[in-house]
Amino acid sequence: MTEGAGFSRVERRAASGLSAVFACRMLGLFMVLPVLSVYADAMPGATPLLIGLALGVYGLMQGLLQVPFGILSDRLGRKPVITAGLLIFIIGSVIAALADDIVMLVVGRALQGGGAVAAAVMALAADLSRERNRTVMMAILGGTIGLAFMLSLVLGPVLAGIGGLGLVFWVAAGLGALAIVVLQAWVPAVSSSSEQLATDDRAVSVLAIAKHPELWRLDVGVFVLHAMMTAVFIGAPLALRDAGVAGADQWQVFLPAVFGAVLVMLPLVYAAERKGLLRGVFLLSITGLGVVPFIFGSVQSVWALGFALAVFFGLFSALEAMMPSRVSKVAQPAHKGTALGLYASSQFFGAFVGGAVGGLLYGAGGALWLYGGCTVLAAVWWGVACGMSSAPPAVNRAAASNGGSV
């Protein structure tokens, strides 16, 4: 890569190609969220717990397998491991598309999550970018996840309205295949020496990464964020149904909510990244995430539900875009891959816990218990985030001076 200003040609191809890979894969996972609880509720054997597992079990598999996939990508190469993970995702999508009962759906969703390549993709992005451009690269990937999430809120209900839940999973399988094509045909290769360096660094940095105060706060944050997101999608589609909006028509609520979410997200990201107000934006966003879910359980107005969804999605997308960039800024250059692997594992464990525990809470006490649990999680996160810094370089220098650098 040349050392000129801005992104080099390799970096531009890496950013566009890996963003497309992320977008295809995350669309395949997220499209299910706004429709699964409504359609799965009618499947044989469905219970609130099993519906919650169907929503969140992919997160358990992702969380368990992120680090093993990352280690394999160090030893076997990034592209082969990412390709294998995408193939597992495709197989899981096909099984879920063919599911005729809730248990088979849970199995398909588990296999969808079995292709745990998020950390390997982010490591490949780090391999293909210079240090000074790496934060921007990670911010692009994080923003892609947020945009894929918002797009999925519209695509999921539209596709389900055309061909039911099965069509959503068939499209997810197709997106997985498209991601493989983009990965192989467009994303540049990386030298084996860079990958071996990542292996050596990973072996000595896991414990330090786990104990680093800033990174630990981010890991807790992304765990809570995805737990809340999965839990909300147990109750919100059912709330819309109870308000008179059928599952196939819920895109008419999600579409304006997506536009509203952009209006919420952009000022927050701008204030955090350009104005140096990161800590304040985090605390404000966490507060909103703790308050908004109660609207889902306390009103039956479609307009009020749509407003609540717009605010929730906007806050979620802003945090989803900012946090990977924050990890990249805080971690020392040699240890970014390990830090991102632990971050990704925390993210997906959160999705599993949100689905499983959210299903239990909804079955035991309805929407009040479900959203009360979300508020408790947000309060815990708020307390953890109070100690965060808005100046990553200073954090790194301070950590280095007391032996806590990662």
Name of the CATH architecture? Up-down Bundle
What percent of residues adopt helix (DSSP H or I)?
Answer: over 70%
Structural class by secondary-structure content: mainly alpha
For the largest beta-sheet, the strand count, sense and barrel status come to: none
Give a count of the beta strands, DSSP E runs of length 2 or more.
0
Radius of gyration computed on alpha carbons = 20 Å
Task: Extract low-pLDDT stretches.
Answer: 193-204, 392-406
Question: What would the CATH topology be?
Answer: Growth Hormone, Chain: A
Principal-axes geometry comes out as globular
Q: Give the amount of beta strand, in percent.
A: under 5%
Q: Element order, helices and strands?
A: HHHHHHHHHHHHHHH
Distance between the termini: 26 Å
Mean pLDDT: 85
Structure description:
The relative contact order is 0.16. The chain has one domain: Up-down Bundle (Growth Hormone, Chain: A). Helix content is 84%, strand content 0%. Mean pLDDT is 85; it is low at 193-204 and 392-406. The protein is mainly alpha-helical and 406 residues long. The protein has helices spanning 9-30, 33-40, 48-76, 78-98, 102-114, 118-127, 131-185, 192-211, 213-242, 251-274, 278-291, 293-298, 302-330, 336-385, 392-401.
Give a summary of the structure in a few sentences.
The chain is mostly helical and 406 residues long.
Keywords:
84% helix; mainly alpha; Growth Hormone, Chain: A; 15 helices
Write the layout of secondary structure elements.
Elements: H1 9-30, H2 33-40, H3 48-76, H4 78-98, H5 102-114, H6 118-127, H7 131-185, H8 192-211, H9 213-242, H10 251-274, H11 278-291, H12 293-298, H13 302-330, H14 336-385, H15 392-401
Helix pairs in contact: 1-6, 1-7, 2-3, 2-7, 2-9, 3-4, 3-5, 3-6, 3-8, 3-9, 3-14, 4-5, 4-6, 4-7, 6-14, 7-10, 7-13, 8-14, 9-13, 9-14, 10-11, 10-13, 11-13, 11-14
